[in-house]
């Protein structure tokens, strides 16, 4: 029996976007170590990506369009730097050399380029259904299994107020919830939904929102808000009330933050009490951010300036794939800054153009290809997220989302639907 290439395409997307949090939830539920299953899953995704690359007909090979060409240029410079540093300066690296190559090539570059090269038919409705169902099923399980207690290296248990799993940190936990939020919100902005679909999406929105808050991570929350605001601003038929509500929430959050900075500890104590009732730590963490009393925020700011100084010392071709000065983090938690220190202007300029073109493409898809609008939201969420956390070689979800976005601009949709009816398969219309 001949296996269709689309199966490998879907496997690459699922593994690259929600595969790891789903696997982390599964291994936590079973009570086994996540390492071996993760290797198996990543290998399956890599094999699927390589099959796509090898089996693609000549006429569907990568066209030398601006975005793929610049993307290739950036990765060529980055991989050259990676080769140099892992071979000649491996003792100065924070991790084993193999880790950088496994994630850079196996989890990020090859899967992304296999999607960029793909020219086959894509059923985006089925793909959306898979992503939504996986999130709706596994996220509540992850929430039930999550803990806000962490064990230090010395064996001391302490309360963090941030939900996480043994192999899924709070930031990744928050991003997992964020995926369900943006997909549910996007689907709810359609009309013609029956009661069952409406119920499923409202449940998904509620679960995703709570997990987003329970993670206690500010980056994923900011990413979701920015994504939804961009979505509402870009839509041809945006609803001013929804957009106004989002802007009002952001405005109120700013006001509360300023009050926290001015009033001080009394306001922070109030936030702590609210967090205690809700079982989260998000409000307190936002308050400490404005008070400049949060250790994580202070470390990130310091890391920003250290990385900038490192770039300014070697502006043309970069210096090293990591931050040379000893810090709590070996990378800047911002892929643009990381590109600057690793590849200099030589690699960062193509990357910035790629990000600009991809952002423009995401807006185009929202306006003109409504059946793929959720892909744009997924990409925008990841685009914002990698400005606050993650690194170039390990941000596989971002790179796969970028590759999937490219697919939406040149693929041949198998169905011209605006949204998949999760319960019946009927086609609601955009509103």
Structure notes:
The chain has 431 residues and is mainly alpha-helical. The protein is built from 15 helices and six strands. The strands form three sheets. A two-stranded parallel ribbon has the order 1-5. Strands 2-3 form a two-stranded antiparallel ribbon. A two-stranded antiparallel sheet has the order 4-6. Helix 14 (373-385) packs antiparallel against helix 15. The model is unreliable at 58-64 and 414-431 (pLDDT under 50).
Q: Quick gist of this model?
A:
The protein is built from 15 helices and six strands.
- Helix and strand sequence: HHHHEHEEHEHHHHHHHHHEE
User: How would you characterize the largest beta sheet?
Assistant: 2 strands, parallel
Query: Which term fits the overall shape?
Result: globular
Give me the number of helical elements: 15
Could you tell me the number of beta strands? 6
User: Between the first and last Cα atoms, what is the distance in angstroms?
Assistant: 42 Å
What percentage of residues falls in helices of 4 or more residues? Answer: 55-70%
What is the radius of gyration computed over CA atoms, rounded to a whole number of angstroms?
A: 22 Å
Please give the order of strands in the largest beta sheet. Answer: 1-5
Structural class: mainly alpha
Arithmetic mean pLDDT? 82
Strand content: under 5%
Unreliable stretches (pLDDT < 50, length at least 5) are 58-64, 414-431
